[in-house]
Amino acid sequence: MAIATEPHPCFFYGSLMEPKVLNSVTRPGPEADLFTVRASIQGYIRYPYHNEPYPGMVASQDDHEAVEGLLVFGHTMMDRFRLDQFEGSEYTRRLLPVKVLDPVPGKYNVQGQYQRLSAGDLVQAYVYVFTGPREHLDTSRPWDFEAFQREHLAIWMQTSPDFTQRMLDCTQQA
């Protein structure tokens, strides 16, 4: 039996770029057929959330500014529901154009043409844009993914059983 997947990939620019975090949130099963590729989004900038290890991405005043991240193809509707719960009320899921930076096999092309996507092609993707109060972000410095992995990942993964329980509760309610 085929699993229904979302018609659009998701673009991740923060903690969800780390496979351990993404897999703990979506818990893809052995039947999952996910494909991940480097990507970027133009006209945005990401900043650290005050006193937290994750960022928020907001529109930039400079249209040439870009945020690099990962584009993930193949999530199910339940995965997206879990992602919505994880992101919370200060992040809004929007469908935005994202540029793929590496080729994508045709079977993942959401355009319905089943032609591969080439580096530089644009694809509509779900993006969780920060829409909370701007003062919640530390706009004095950019967010650093490598620092997140080095300094916060291990502790964050160990101290989030409450999140895991919330995800299980949401899944049972759905």
From TrEMBL:
PANTHER family linked: AIG2-LIKE PROTEIN D
Family: Belongs to the gamma-glutamylcyclotransferase family.
InterPro entries registered for this protein in UniProt: AIG2-like, AIG2-like_dom, GGCT-like, GGCT-like_sf
Domain Gamma-glutamylcyclotransferase AIG2-like: 10-143
Organism of derivation: Mortierella alpina
Entry keyword set: Transferase
Origin superkingdom: Eukaryota
Listed Pfam families: GGACT (PF06094)
Protein name per Swiss-Prot or TrEMBL: Putative gamma-glutamylcyclotransferase
Lineage: Eukaryota, Fungi, Fungi incertae sedis, Mucoromycota, Mortierellomycotina
Gene3D superfamilies: Gamma-glutamyl cyclotransferase-like
UniProt GO molecular function: transferase activity
